[in-house]
Specification:
Aldehyde Ferredoxin Oxidoreductase Protein, subunit A, domain 2; Aldehyde Ferredoxin Oxidoreductase Protein, subunit A, domain 3; 6-stranded mixed beta sheet; 4-stranded mixed beta sheet
Length: 604
Amino acid sequence: MHGWNGKILRVNLNKKTSAVQSYDKDFALNYLGGRGFAARILWDELPAGTDPLSPQNKLIFATGPLTGLPVASSGKIVVAAKSPLTNGYGDGNLGSRAAVTLRKAGYEALVVEGKADSPVYVLVEDDSVEIMDAKDLWGKGTFDAEDDLTATHGKSAGVLLIGQAGENLVKFAPVMSQKGRAGGRPGMGAVMGSKNLKAVVIKGTKDIPLADPDSLKELGKDAYKDIKGKESYDFWIRQGTMQALEWANESSCLPSYNFREGVFDEAKGIDGYKVEELKVDRRGCPNCNMQCGNVIKDVEGQEAELDYENVGLLGSNLGIGNLKEVALLNRLADDWGIDTISAGNIIGFVMEASERKLIPENYKWGSVDDARTIMEAIAFRKGFGNTLAEGVRHSAATIGKGCEKWAIQCKGLECSAYDCHAAPGMALAFATSSIGAHHKDAWLISWEIATDRSGYNKEKVAKLIELQQLRGGVFESLVACRLPWIEVGFALDWYPKFLKAATGEDLSMDNLKTAGDRIYALIRCFWKRENPDFGRSWDIPPERWFTEPLTKGPMKGTKVDREGYTRMQNWYYEMRGWDSNGIPTRKTLEALGLADVAGALHIA
């Protein structure tokens, strides 16, 4: 088999054993890699109703057939498990040397099972696998811990690890790498912490088996040249994802004051031009020539890596208009190993609860000191932070008094940085995302604003599904970064060419979209199996967007129309081949090769 190593490494922490499992070409073609492999493994092997923080949960690090190859932005890895935050399928991707080194060690995926008796890290060096003592690393932030591991194992080693938030089982702790790369918002870091696993260190020296390495090398060169020649490339290099902040503010979708508004009066103090003014470095993932990590020095003079999502949630959403203050919060979150998106969302929720006098604490909008206090309480589970560490849905239920209506989440995952009062299609994208409210699966809002922003129509639903196929299915499973395509216009037809040279297989974009549909349907069924009441009521955006119109900006007075949303939700299910409750039908599952899944759920 070319393009795939055909091997999955399994490590059992309580038994202190490792084993290598082979898989065949049919599995590879049906599920591609990354998210596809992770979803199928969790479906097949996880007993229904497994406690996400129990030793029985499986933590999966998975790459795809493009990972680590000399092609555009191929340095990504997916980390997945059953989510302790949402009780459904959870994953995320991050750029890391570990993505490349896992492939070069000879594996597509690493599956971690069980729980160690005391803190450990897993060391993989090609065919050698060791479970190492990590007592001296436990309690350290991700920056110091990674420095220690790199000093021991060399700069060529890929390191995936958690900070104190993951150790303390904060339910939105991600997995970290390279002092700013993060993945697994729905608590993959908490799952890692529950296993007493501080880190995974991977070194690989093998060649990845390729069908036509010479052609792939030439394609890669041409692709990098194509990306650099794009009209928007130079501006991207200047601002990266931070260019979105000015656009979001002008478009009334920049989350401000816990998603009450879509504009922020101090936006110029935290936008891409301010980043340009303060930038001291740029960081990126392996194999990337359009690095998105903008580095500035925070108010304490320390380097922090910023992108739009962190700044939107830790800046405007908290009423903070000083980029150096935002950078401080971002650096602390990265070091403690806490998700910046969820953290900013929850801190905004707490500030509003304080403003409404629903909690005894007195926190002020725009106060970086208050934001830091709340974030530290969460990361270390101190006082009320112990409740907040469970996520905004749980926190709202604990406080009560109607604050559930302005807890900005879907399926238990806090929304990322797009206010949707005036973007009903993006509201549906958040609500139907495979992991909860995240833009990763379908960043519909740019297309929506440029076409029929206020419309509730089938065209918008069809575009949403297409983006979910591509973003949530294809890119998450290949595994490759979607930003060259989205941000500079790198053509999608490059990817079948890459795959042909790597695997020898003729996989058209339609073939890949079908695989995306298969993976999406499987994940949907996983949610249903783990949550018997799962259905259309779970696919609803925050109540605030329905009931509290924007009060300022060009879209003043706008809110999501509930009847219009319901129409789009119905069309979405019909186009997906799901029933009226949002569950894939037997016919759809059988057409996707998932008859066994239909049988397990007793779908008639």
